[in-house]
Amino acid sequence: MRKLMLLGLGSAVALPLMLSALAAQSLPGEETAQGDVSVTIYNNNLALVQDIRQMNLPAGTTRQEFPDVSASIRPETVSLTGADFGIAEQNFDYDLLSPGKLMEKAVGQTVTLLRTNTATGAETRERAKVLSANGGVVIQVGDRIEVLRDDGLPVRVIFDKVPPNLRAKPTLSVTVDSSRTGVRPLTLSYLTTGLGWRADYVSLFDEKAGTINMQGWITLTNSTGTTFSAAETLLVAGEVGQVQQGYGRNQYDRGGPQPMGNKMGTETGSREQLGDFYLYPIKGRTTIANAQTKQVSFLDVIGAKAEKAYEYRNGWMGAQDNAQSAATVLRFSNARKDGIGDAMPAGTVRVYMKDARGQAQFIGENAIGHTPGGSNLALKTGEAFDVKIQPFVEKREVIKSDEWERSVRYRITKSNGKTETVTVDTQKEFWRTTMKYVVTNAKSSAVSVDVIQSGLNRYWYWPDDRVVSETIVGEQLNANERHWKVPVPANGETTLTVVFDTRY
Amino acid sequence: MRHWLALIGMVIAAPVAAQTIVISDAPKTVSVSLYRNPDRGENDAIDLEYLQGFALISETREVDLPPGKVVIRFEGVASGIQPETAIVTGTDVAEKNRDRMLLSQRGLLDAFTGQRVTIKRTNPKTGKVTEENGTIRSGSDRLILQTKDGFEALYCNYQNETLLYPGVPKGLTAKPTLSVTTRDQPGGKQTVTLTYLASKFDWQANYVGELAPDAKSMNLIAWLTMASGDDTSFESASAYAIAGKLERQERDNSEDENSEYSADNIEVYFSCWPYGTTTSNLSQEVPVPVNVQTLSAPVMMKMDMMEDAEAIIVTASRRVAEQEDLGDLKLYRIPFPVTVAARAQKQVAFLDKQSVQGEMIYRSKVSGNNFGNVEMLFRVQNKKESGLGEALPAGKIAFFQSSAGRRMLVGESNVADKAVGEEVEFSFAQASNVSVDIEDTGSDKKSDSYALTVSNANPFPITFEAEFGSDDYTRHNKFTGKTIRKKGKTIWSVIVDPNSDKTLGYRETRIEAND
Fold first, then answer.
1. For burial by CB atoms within 10 Å, which of A278, A378, A406, B244 has the most?
2. ipTM for the complex shown
3. Using the 8-state DSSP alphabet, how is residue A210 labeled?
4. CA-CA distance, B74 to B56, in Å (whole number)?
């Protein structure tokens, strides 16, 4: 039917539907008891909601209900402020009305049973007393005791009332003492879980030009069970409060060693700050619907500098039967001089590249933590098909060095009572390991591969490792790691040979 | 129907007054790039029931926009869309939304909680219909209605009862839909490109090797096997497969999975009061009779059709996909438009090489007096000179050989991603006519001596290789035959005549003993 309509209008061009201000039907989904709502959302599944409602409070003590608060509210954090009233009591009722609860609460009370005769269709009503609801419901009708629906026949059970504290939804109520009658703004504020945000970055990498175009999107999710209507929304990049003791890692920490070239920066970003945290306000008011994922743009940079690198990290004496692909690493900086010039909230960076016909294709993604301005980032996007490395142990032998070390010292008391110190020196023995790293390149252009050998300072008792020879001059990154830049010609192969002396 | 959808669309616009909804119900052109599940090893087959790869889908859509701020709703996107990855170009996008609140029984009950609805009852005997007004007093999984008589748990009665609602609540959509809000824009006909990642796709390479009778060459055909587990079919798509390993992050889709509106949770299960009787032990969880067409209906229909669609379609033409470099990955471009059908698998050739030169090797891996099974492998240098010289994406290979006029399967193997120039070994079977034995021939304080004998019971000569590995504290030396060093290993390569054997003596020496 829809196709026909479209054909009738000639072409698959979609119709603009100018339905802007249709007369509002009184259907659920748009009316809310919320007032002027503002929401501050933190990264760690936490949000502060402030809801200013115009409420008419009568003088004296009354109980006020606040529907449409977050269903994931943390009730202990509720605060209610306003003029000319005091708070006697705050309640958060989360005992929910259900058939089971209703029957349990009806024990000892009388309900109406409405039975339909299956032969005639005639309805009969009778009153019954609920005696118990354990596994089955035992009722008393007149002077007979029976189990409800034991006969399997349909029967309607009609309860006279529901207990007052059983509710359809969790409900917040506050008992207030008001000194006067009248409408006034009441500010309700609370913390809730179920609202969160993260950043998603789209970066289009142009390898030839050495640039990336970077778009940043804030991705907001709402699983509170409640829609926040026309809310003023502020996002805080950082994890507040809820300090986790110990050595806990946060969700954006990437396990294991990171590629070379990551360095946190010292530039202050252009955003508004709250103490240590950057703030990302969303322009205008926005409705954050329940079960919605919403994305709002916050960063759009064209032509920031970026480069590609290859890296392979080998464990101590790591040998491979087959050549392994080197990691493809994208390096860029968010420093002002390189184009991005802003802090980057934690999230996922997705990298795209254009294929031979200009179609953008996905080439990998990685996570970043909260990244201050001026940082250098090196993200592994994948593994190179054509750039491979095969490390193996070519030779192991034990050698005696020219060095001696003192291994024993005695104090001897001679028969004449004099003491003398005797020392024994032994020649230092080293294990000499010859490692070879065969780096191959099936690409039609030359590449440079960063090879890192780790495990050089594995244990406290392994203090004096040394590099005897290397076919390419390396650089010691730290006590544990040594790095070589291995140039590999197009469609070629380079072998790096390194001889290590270690004590064990 | 159109009007009805428009009404739903309204909801998105509701927060900001006077916004226009434009519905784009199908793409004009679409391209689908398939990515292999990065965590699936080359020897694991595609699991059609649980596809863990993904696809990049790029759709161009034509829309006619009025000027100003406009909401564009993109319908018919992949059901596995990862909304956080969506990129929209061609119009100035301020905001993207993905709503999961689906028009469903749960959606209706949730929306009408606290509202008035109509209860319709049908007398089972007389068929007489009575209607009564009531108010929903509880959440969707615990339905309690208030009527003029009192309170009732509607679906615990086992009566012919159903609820009638006065209309479709605002905020519920028929299917998961991505919508964008533009900034102020001039309007007019525009081509908008929507690009996103979607789960539930996968692909792999499948190779078929026809070994020549002398086993010195093979004909190699390779197929791209592409699978979609999505509910949406993409007609006449430009299709690509991307080879190589990409880095991907574990996706936090908890809001998808935990949502009451996810496919797994959306069906309403209704809890009743205790149902135990004196004669039975009925379950207390009763599925509510469905009286609303939920989203899952089209999904289920598709699943029913899946049986037919799952049949593997092998394109008759041997038109070979074109390969190009995409950064450090390999991209295969299918040279003709294909339909990436919902829940189906498809194969397109990407390699067809005649007479690829290689050699048949029998090999055993040796360390000390331990040796591995004798494996049969076909070794190829992946170079132009050998008749190959092509990137080989990871996948399975089946070897066939004609023997006495019959085509026989001789073995199966798998291959990891192999670049041009690499040596490729297809280890496809365990030998049964070639065996190895190792005997102790003596020892001193720093070494043990052994003799390895390889026996060939075949009526033809074979090439045998013993591969000596080493551990950190021993080495193999004093070989009595000619050996070569290859990537840290010592190899004894020997031709063993039909029905004969060959022996190699060697030592395993402990390094700390200093020789």
1. B244
2. 0.78
3. T
4. 16
